[in-house]
UniProtKB/TrEMBL annotation:
It comes from the Bacteria. The chain crosses the membrane at residues 52-72, 84-112, 165-188, 237-259, 279-300, 312-332, 338-356, 368-391, 403-423. It is a multi-pass membrane protein. SUPFAM superfamilies: MFS general substrate transporter. This is ACS family hexuronate transporter-like MFS transporter. The keyword Transmembrane applies. The keyword Cell membrane applies. Residues 15-427 form the Major facilitator superfamily (MFS) profile domain. CDD domains: MFS_ExuT_GudP_like.
Length: 442
Protein backbone atom coordinates (compact mmCIF):
# COMPACT_ATOMS: atom_id res chain seq x y z
CA UNK A 1 0.00 0.00 0.00
CA UNK A 2 1.40 3.40 -0.98
CA UNK A 3 2.34 5.58 2.00
CA UNK A 4 0.66 8.97 2.05
CA UNK A 5 3.00 11.96 1.97
CA UNK A 6 3.04 13.99 5.19
CA UNK A 7 3.09 17.75 4.64
CA UNK A 8 4.97 20.13 6.86
CA UNK A 9 2.98 22.01 9.46
CA UNK A 10 3.27 25.81 9.39
CA UNK A 11 3.16 26.65 13.06
CA UNK A 12 6.03 29.12 12.63
CA UNK A 13 3.56 31.58 11.09
CA UNK A 14 1.50 31.59 14.30
CA UNK A 15 4.65 32.42 16.24
CA UNK A 16 5.56 35.25 13.87
CA UNK A 17 1.99 36.56 14.02
CA UNK A 18 2.22 36.79 17.80
CA UNK A 19 5.56 38.57 17.42
CA UNK A 20 3.87 40.96 14.99
CA UNK A 21 1.18 41.69 17.58
CA UNK A 22 3.85 42.31 20.22
CA UNK A 23 5.61 44.81 17.93
CA UNK A 24 2.25 46.46 17.17
CA UNK A 25 1.54 46.90 20.90
CA UNK A 26 5.14 48.03 21.41
CA UNK A 27 4.92 50.92 18.97
CA UNK A 28 1.34 51.82 19.81
CA UNK A 29 2.55 52.25 23.40
CA UNK A 30 5.51 54.34 22.26
CA UNK A 31 3.49 56.48 19.89
CA UNK A 32 0.76 57.17 22.45
CA UNK A 33 2.76 59.73 24.41
CA UNK A 34 3.73 61.65 21.26
CA UNK A 35 0.17 61.63 19.92
CA UNK A 36 -1.22 62.80 23.26
CA UNK A 37 1.67 65.26 23.71
CA UNK A 38 -0.28 68.50 23.05
CA UNK A 39 -2.81 67.54 25.75
CA UNK A 40 -0.16 66.29 28.20
CA UNK A 41 2.03 69.38 27.75
CA UNK A 42 -0.95 71.65 28.31
CA UNK A 43 -2.15 69.66 31.34
CA UNK A 44 1.21 69.36 33.12
CA UNK A 45 2.80 72.56 31.77
CA UNK A 46 6.02 71.13 30.31
CA UNK A 47 8.49 73.29 28.35
CA UNK A 48 9.95 72.11 25.00
CA UNK A 49 13.23 71.17 26.70
CA UNK A 50 11.46 69.28 29.52
CA UNK A 51 9.34 67.45 26.95
CA UNK A 52 12.45 66.52 24.99
CA UNK A 53 13.94 64.94 28.13
CA UNK A 54 10.69 63.08 28.85
CA UNK A 55 10.63 61.65 25.33
CA UNK A 56 14.29 60.63 25.64
CA UNK A 57 13.95 59.16 29.15
CA UNK A 58 12.44 56.01 27.68
CA UNK A 59 15.56 55.44 25.56
CA UNK A 60 18.00 55.91 28.45
CA UNK A 61 16.86 52.52 29.74
CA UNK A 62 15.60 51.05 26.47
CA UNK A 63 19.09 51.19 24.95
CA UNK A 64 21.01 49.20 27.62
CA UNK A 65 18.11 46.79 28.09
CA UNK A 66 18.11 46.04 24.36
CA UNK A 67 21.65 44.76 24.92
CA UNK A 68 20.74 43.03 28.20
CA UNK A 69 17.67 41.55 26.53
CA UNK A 70 19.86 40.09 23.79
CA UNK A 71 21.99 38.37 26.44
CA UNK A 72 18.85 37.14 28.22
CA UNK A 73 17.69 35.55 24.97
CA UNK A 74 20.88 33.48 24.89
CA UNK A 75 20.45 32.58 28.58
CA UNK A 76 16.72 32.00 29.25
CA UNK A 77 15.33 31.84 25.70
CA UNK A 78 13.17 34.06 23.53
CA UNK A 79 9.86 32.77 24.94
CA UNK A 80 10.58 33.83 28.52
CA UNK A 81 12.30 37.07 27.52
CA UNK A 82 9.41 38.17 25.29
CA UNK A 83 6.70 37.37 27.83
CA UNK A 84 8.43 38.98 30.80
CA UNK A 85 9.37 42.14 28.90
CA UNK A 86 5.77 42.56 27.72
CA UNK A 87 4.48 42.33 31.28
CA UNK A 88 6.97 44.93 32.53
CA UNK A 89 6.43 47.49 29.77
CA UNK A 90 2.62 47.10 29.75
CA UNK A 91 2.51 47.67 33.50
CA UNK A 92 4.31 51.00 33.18
CA UNK A 93 2.29 52.06 30.14
CA UNK A 94 -0.76 51.82 32.38
CA UNK A 95 1.03 53.59 35.25
CA UNK A 96 1.68 56.56 32.89
CA UNK A 97 -1.91 57.58 33.59
CA UNK A 98 -0.90 58.45 37.19
CA UNK A 99 1.88 60.94 36.28
CA UNK A 100 1.46 64.37 37.87
CA UNK A 101 4.71 66.29 37.19
CA UNK A 102 8.08 66.20 35.42
CA UNK A 103 9.77 63.89 37.95
CA UNK A 104 7.01 61.29 38.03
CA UNK A 105 6.77 61.20 34.24
CA UNK A 106 10.54 60.75 33.94
CA UNK A 107 10.58 57.79 36.35
CA UNK A 108 7.66 56.08 34.62
CA UNK A 109 9.25 56.54 31.19
CA UNK A 110 12.56 55.13 32.44
CA UNK A 111 10.84 51.99 33.76
CA UNK A 112 8.79 51.70 30.57
CA UNK A 113 12.06 51.57 28.62
CA UNK A 114 13.36 48.72 30.80
CA UNK A 115 10.47 46.56 29.63
CA UNK A 116 10.50 47.46 25.93
CA UNK A 117 14.27 47.15 25.45
CA UNK A 118 14.42 43.39 24.77
CA UNK A 119 11.67 43.36 22.10
CA UNK A 120 13.74 43.80 18.91
CA UNK A 121 16.62 41.42 19.74
CA UNK A 122 14.06 38.88 20.97
CA UNK A 123 12.20 39.08 17.65
CA UNK A 124 15.53 38.52 15.87
CA UNK A 125 16.34 35.47 18.00
CA UNK A 126 12.83 34.13 17.44
CA UNK A 127 13.16 34.41 13.64
CA UNK A 128 16.56 32.71 13.77
CA UNK A 129 15.02 29.82 15.73
CA UNK A 130 11.85 29.44 13.66
CA UNK A 131 12.76 30.36 10.05
CA UNK A 132 15.41 29.42 7.47
CA UNK A 133 18.11 32.07 6.99
CA UNK A 134 17.07 32.58 3.37
CA UNK A 135 13.66 33.80 4.63
CA UNK A 136 14.95 35.81 7.59
CA UNK A 137 14.47 39.27 6.02
CA UNK A 138 10.84 38.58 5.18
CA UNK A 139 10.10 36.94 8.55
CA UNK A 140 11.77 39.76 10.50
CA UNK A 141 9.89 42.41 8.57
CA UNK A 142 6.56 40.62 8.96
CA UNK A 143 7.28 40.49 12.68
CA UNK A 144 8.31 44.14 12.84
CA UNK A 145 5.45 45.30 10.63
CA UNK A 146 3.66 45.92 13.89
CA UNK A 147 6.09 48.77 14.58
CA UNK A 148 4.60 50.71 11.67
CA UNK A 149 0.98 49.61 12.05
CA UNK A 150 1.03 50.37 15.79
CA UNK A 151 1.20 54.16 15.31
CA UNK A 152 -1.46 53.96 12.56
CA UNK A 153 -3.87 52.37 15.05
CA UNK A 154 -2.70 54.42 18.03
CA UNK A 155 -3.05 57.84 16.38
CA UNK A 156 -6.85 57.92 15.85
CA UNK A 157 -7.51 55.85 18.99
CA UNK A 158 -5.46 58.05 21.32
CA UNK A 159 -6.78 61.27 19.73
CA UNK A 160 -10.38 60.06 20.11
CA UNK A 161 -9.88 59.00 23.73
CA UNK A 162 -7.99 62.20 24.56
CA UNK A 163 -10.62 64.48 23.03
CA UNK A 164 -13.54 62.65 24.67
CA UNK A 165 -12.20 61.31 27.99
CA UNK A 166 -8.75 62.84 28.50
CA UNK A 167 -5.28 61.51 27.74
CA UNK A 168 -4.90 59.22 30.78
CA UNK A 169 -7.46 56.58 29.80
CA UNK A 170 -5.63 55.68 26.57
CA UNK A 171 -2.58 54.51 28.54
CA UNK A 172 -4.67 52.27 30.80
CA UNK A 173 -6.29 50.58 27.79
CA UNK A 174 -2.95 50.03 26.01
CA UNK A 175 -1.44 48.53 29.16
CA UNK A 176 -4.28 46.01 29.49
CA UNK A 177 -3.82 44.87 25.86
CA UNK A 178 -0.17 44.02 26.58
CA UNK A 179 -1.02 41.91 29.64
CA UNK A 180 -3.57 39.92 27.59
CA UNK A 181 -0.92 39.30 24.91
CA UNK A 182 1.57 38.00 27.51
CA UNK A 183 -0.95 35.46 28.84
CA UNK A 184 -1.63 34.13 25.32
CA UNK A 185 2.10 34.05 24.52
CA UNK A 186 3.02 31.88 27.49
CA UNK A 187 0.19 29.48 26.61
CA UNK A 188 1.10 28.88 22.94
CA UNK A 189 4.80 29.70 22.33
CA UNK A 190 8.02 27.70 22.65
CA UNK A 191 11.64 28.72 22.11
CA UNK A 192 12.26 26.34 19.22
CA UNK A 193 10.07 24.33 16.83
CA UNK A 194 11.60 21.05 18.06
CA UNK A 195 10.05 21.75 21.48
CA UNK A 196 6.51 22.28 20.23
CA UNK A 197 4.13 19.32 20.04
CA UNK A 198 2.14 20.91 17.19
CA UNK A 199 5.20 21.14 14.91
CA UNK A 200 5.93 18.00 12.90
CA UNK A 201 9.34 16.77 11.74
CA UNK A 202 8.75 17.95 8.17
CA UNK A 203 8.44 21.55 9.35
CA UNK A 204 11.54 21.21 11.51
CA UNK A 205 13.47 19.84 8.52
CA UNK A 206 12.26 22.72 6.34
CA UNK A 207 13.34 25.30 8.91
CA UNK A 208 16.74 23.72 9.36
CA UNK A 209 17.42 23.64 5.61
CA UNK A 210 18.23 26.75 3.57
CA UNK A 211 15.53 27.26 0.92
CA UNK A 212 18.08 28.58 -1.56
CA UNK A 213 19.80 25.19 -1.64
CA UNK A 214 17.96 22.24 -0.20
CA UNK A 215 21.27 20.42 0.30
CA UNK A 216 22.72 23.16 2.50
CA UNK A 217 21.80 22.86 6.18
CA UNK A 218 20.41 26.15 7.46
CA UNK A 219 22.44 26.10 10.65
CA UNK A 220 25.77 25.38 8.93
CA UNK A 221 25.74 28.60 6.93
CA UNK A 222 28.00 30.13 9.59
CA UNK A 223 30.75 27.98 11.07
CA UNK A 224 31.11 28.80 14.78
CA UNK A 225 34.85 29.24 15.41
CA UNK A 226 34.35 29.64 19.16
CA UNK A 227 35.31 33.31 19.25
CA UNK A 228 33.87 35.74 21.81
CA UNK A 229 31.13 38.30 21.29
CA UNK A 230 33.43 41.35 21.18
CA UNK A 231 35.59 39.85 18.43
CA UNK A 232 32.54 40.09 16.15
CA UNK A 233 31.23 43.43 17.43
CA UNK A 234 34.49 45.33 16.77
CA UNK A 235 34.73 44.30 13.10
CA UNK A 236 34.20 46.93 10.35
CA UNK A 237 31.24 44.89 9.09
CA UNK A 238 29.33 45.14 12.39
CA UNK A 239 30.51 48.67 13.24
CA UNK A 240 29.30 50.08 9.91
CA UNK A 241 25.92 48.37 10.38
CA UNK A 242 25.69 49.84 13.90
CA UNK A 243 26.34 53.39 12.66
CA UNK A 244 23.88 53.13 9.79
CA UNK A 245 21.28 51.60 12.11
CA UNK A 246 21.87 54.56 14.46
CA UNK A 247 21.16 56.95 11.55
CA UNK A 248 18.03 54.98 10.65
CA UNK A 249 16.84 55.22 14.25
CA UNK A 250 17.57 58.95 14.42
CA UNK A 251 15.07 59.64 11.64
CA UNK A 252 12.60 57.03 12.95
CA UNK A 253 12.60 58.35 16.53
CA UNK A 254 12.46 61.96 15.39
CA UNK A 255 9.25 61.19 13.50
CA UNK A 256 7.89 58.98 16.29
CA UNK A 257 8.65 61.47 19.08
CA UNK A 258 8.21 64.95 17.63
CA UNK A 259 6.23 64.77 14.41
CA UNK A 260 2.70 65.02 15.90
CA UNK A 261 3.78 68.05 17.96
CA UNK A 262 5.50 69.53 14.89
CA UNK A 263 2.29 69.25 12.86
CA UNK A 264 0.29 71.09 15.52
CA UNK A 265 2.86 73.75 16.50
CA UNK A 266 4.68 74.39 13.24
CA UNK A 267 2.17 73.44 10.55
CA UNK A 268 -0.91 74.76 12.38
CA UNK A 269 -3.08 71.65 12.11
CA UNK A 270 -5.75 70.93 14.73
CA UNK A 271 -5.63 68.00 17.16
CA UNK A 272 -8.32 66.20 15.14
CA UNK A 273 -6.48 66.80 11.83
CA UNK A 274 -3.23 65.61 13.38
CA UNK A 275 -4.83 62.25 14.22
CA UNK A 276 -5.32 61.70 10.48
CA UNK A 277 -2.17 63.31 9.05
CA UNK A 278 0.15 61.61 11.56
CA UNK A 279 -0.88 58.17 10.27
CA UNK A 280 0.31 58.72 6.69
CA UNK A 281 4.06 58.41 7.36
CA UNK A 282 3.38 55.09 9.08
CA UNK A 283 1.32 53.81 6.17
CA UNK A 284 4.31 54.59 3.95
CA UNK A 285 6.58 52.90 6.48
CA UNK A 286 4.45 49.73 6.40
CA UNK A 287 4.67 49.55 2.61
CA UNK A 288 8.42 50.09 2.70
CA UNK A 289 9.03 47.51 5.42
CA UNK A 290 7.24 44.72 3.57
CA UNK A 291 8.50 45.75 0.12
CA UNK A 292 12.12 45.86 1.27
CA UNK A 293 11.83 42.48 2.97
CA UNK A 294 10.36 40.67 -0.02
CA UNK A 295 12.93 42.31 -2.32
CA UNK A 296 15.77 41.22 -0.02
CA UNK A 297 14.67 37.58 0.07
CA UNK A 298 14.07 37.70 -3.71
CA UNK A 299 17.73 38.67 -4.19
CA UNK A 300 18.80 35.74 -2.02
CA UNK A 301 16.78 33.24 -4.04
CA UNK A 302 17.98 34.68 -7.35
CA UNK A 303 21.61 34.39 -6.27
CA UNK A 304 23.35 31.28 -7.58
CA UNK A 305 25.49 31.09 -4.43
CA UNK A 306 22.70 31.82 -1.95
CA UNK A 307 24.26 35.22 -1.18
CA UNK A 308 22.66 36.45 2.06
CA UNK A 309 24.45 39.81 2.18
CA UNK A 310 24.83 41.70 -1.13
CA UNK A 311 21.17 42.31 -1.96
CA UNK A 312 20.37 43.41 1.58
CA UNK A 313 23.42 45.66 1.67
CA UNK A 314 22.49 47.54 -1.50
CA UNK A 315 18.88 47.92 -0.42
CA UNK A 316 20.19 49.74 2.67
CA UNK A 317 22.56 51.93 0.67
CA UNK A 318 20.06 53.04 -1.98
CA UNK A 319 17.08 53.58 0.32
CA UNK A 320 19.04 55.45 3.01
CA UNK A 321 20.50 57.86 0.45
CA UNK A 322 17.03 58.46 -0.97
CA UNK A 323 15.70 58.97 2.56
CA UNK A 324 18.21 61.77 3.01
CA UNK A 325 17.13 63.36 -0.26
CA UNK A 326 13.43 63.48 0.72
CA UNK A 327 13.43 64.00 4.51
CA UNK A 328 15.27 67.34 4.69
CA UNK A 329 13.24 69.14 1.98
CA UNK A 330 9.99 68.29 3.80
CA UNK A 331 10.84 70.97 6.36
CA UNK A 332 10.82 73.97 4.03
CA UNK A 333 7.95 73.28 1.60
CA UNK A 334 5.01 75.62 2.19
CA UNK A 335 2.11 73.17 1.95
CA UNK A 336 1.45 70.90 4.99
CA UNK A 337 0.07 68.23 2.62
CA UNK A 338 3.23 68.26 0.50
CA UNK A 339 5.36 68.16 3.65
CA UNK A 340 3.47 65.12 4.97
CA UNK A 341 3.76 63.46 1.54
CA UNK A 342 7.55 63.91 1.54
CA UNK A 343 7.84 62.52 5.06
CA UNK A 344 5.62 59.59 4.03
CA UNK A 345 7.97 58.83 1.12
CA UNK A 346 10.96 59.22 3.46
CA UNK A 347 9.48 56.75 5.93
CA UNK A 348 8.69 54.26 3.16
CA UNK A 349 12.31 54.38 2.02
CA UNK A 350 13.65 54.34 5.58
CA UNK A 351 11.74 51.22 6.57
CA UNK A 352 12.68 49.48 3.30
CA UNK A 353 16.27 49.76 4.55
CA UNK A 354 15.48 47.66 7.64
CA UNK A 355 17.85 44.82 6.73
CA UNK A 356 20.28 45.40 9.60
CA UNK A 357 19.33 42.43 11.78
CA UNK A 358 19.13 40.19 8.68
CA UNK A 359 22.76 41.06 7.93
CA UNK A 360 23.65 40.05 11.48
CA UNK A 361 21.74 36.74 11.23
CA UNK A 362 23.68 36.01 8.03
CA UNK A 363 27.12 36.00 9.64
CA UNK A 364 26.85 35.58 13.42
CA UNK A 365 26.78 32.09 15.02
CA UNK A 366 23.55 31.17 16.81
CA UNK A 367 25.43 30.94 20.11
CA UNK A 368 26.04 34.73 20.06
CA UNK A 369 23.16 35.95 17.90
CA UNK A 370 21.06 37.31 20.77
CA UNK A 371 24.02 39.17 22.29
CA UNK A 372 25.29 40.71 19.03
CA UNK A 373 21.83 41.66 17.77
CA UNK A 374 21.12 43.17 21.20
CA UNK A 375 24.30 45.23 20.97
CA UNK A 376 23.48 46.74 17.58
CA UNK A 377 19.97 47.43 18.87
CA UNK A 378 21.58 49.21 21.83
CA UNK A 379 23.69 51.39 19.53
CA UNK A 380 20.74 52.24 17.29
CA UNK A 381 18.63 53.15 20.29
CA UNK A 382 21.17 55.71 21.47
CA UNK A 383 19.60 57.82 18.71
CA UNK A 384 16.37 57.64 20.69
CA UNK A 385 18.17 59.25 23.63
CA UNK A 386 19.90 61.96 21.64
CA UNK A 387 17.40 62.85 18.87
CA UNK A 388 14.44 63.97 21.03
CA UNK A 389 16.66 66.02 23.38
CA UNK A 390 18.61 67.57 20.52
CA UNK A 391 15.35 68.41 18.74
CA UNK A 392 13.96 69.99 21.90
CA UNK A 393 17.01 72.25 22.22
CA UNK A 394 16.97 73.14 18.51
CA UNK A 395 13.30 74.11 18.70
CA UNK A 396 13.76 76.01 21.97
CA UNK A 397 16.77 78.07 20.86
CA UNK A 398 16.20 78.47 17.10
CA UNK A 399 12.40 78.57 17.05
CA UNK A 400 12.43 76.12 14.11
CA UNK A 401 12.28 72.39 13.46
CA UNK A 402 14.18 72.69 10.17
CA UNK A 403 17.64 71.91 11.51
CA UNK A 404 16.42 68.64 13.03
CA UNK A 405 15.21 67.53 9.58
CA UNK A 406 18.49 68.57 7.92
CA UNK A 407 20.54 66.64 10.49
CA UNK A 408 18.44 63.51 9.93
CA UNK A 409 19.07 63.73 6.19
CA UNK A 410 22.82 64.03 6.68
CA UNK A 411 23.02 61.06 9.05
CA UNK A 412 21.00 58.83 6.68
CA UNK A 413 23.38 59.53 3.78
CA UNK A 414 26.47 59.13 5.98
CA UNK A 415 25.34 55.73 7.27
CA UNK A 416 24.64 54.54 3.72
CA UNK A 417 28.16 55.48 2.61
CA UNK A 418 29.73 53.50 5.47
CA UNK A 419 27.71 50.38 4.65
CA UNK A 420 28.63 50.66 0.97
CA UNK A 421 32.33 50.68 1.92
CA UNK A 422 32.63 48.20 4.80
CA UNK A 423 29.94 45.56 4.23
CA UNK A 424 31.82 43.43 1.72
CA UNK A 425 33.39 40.01 1.26
CA UNK A 426 36.75 41.13 2.63
CA UNK A 427 35.16 42.56 5.77
CA UNK A 428 33.30 39.30 6.40
CA UNK A 429 36.03 36.78 5.63
CA UNK A 430 39.14 38.65 6.82
CA UNK A 431 38.07 41.02 9.56
CA UNK A 432 35.78 38.55 11.32
CA UNK A 433 37.45 35.32 10.18
CA UNK A 434 33.98 33.86 9.73
CA UNK A 435 33.93 30.85 7.49
CA UNK A 436 30.75 30.65 5.42
CA UNK A 437 29.19 28.35 2.86
CA UNK A 438 26.93 30.84 1.14
CA UNK A 439 27.50 34.26 2.71
CA UNK A 440 29.10 36.53 0.14
CA UNK A 441 29.06 40.23 -0.62
CA UNK A 442 30.34 42.74 -3.10
Amino acid sequence: MKKLKTFATKYRYRIIFLSFLAALINYADRAAISIASPAIIEDLQFSAVEWGFILSAFYFTYAPFAFIGGILNDKIGARNTYGLSMIVWSTFVGVTATAWNFGSMMIIRLLFGVGEGPQAPTATKLVSNWFPKSESARALSLSQLGTTIGPIIAAPLVVWLTVNWGWRLSFVILGLLGIIWAIVWFLVAKDKPEQHKKVNQQEVDYIRVSVGDDKTPNRSTVVDTGRGMWSYIKTPYVVSICICYFAYSWVLFLVLSWYPTYLVNSRGVSMQQMGSLATWPWIGASIGLIGGAFLADYFVKRSRTGDLVSGRKWIIVVTMICTGLTFGPSAFVASPNVAVTLVTVSMMLLLASWQYQSLIIAVIPDRLLGSVSGFIQFISTLAGIIAPIATGYLVEYTGSYNYAFYLGSFLAAFGAILVSIFVNKSSISKSTSIETNDVTAN
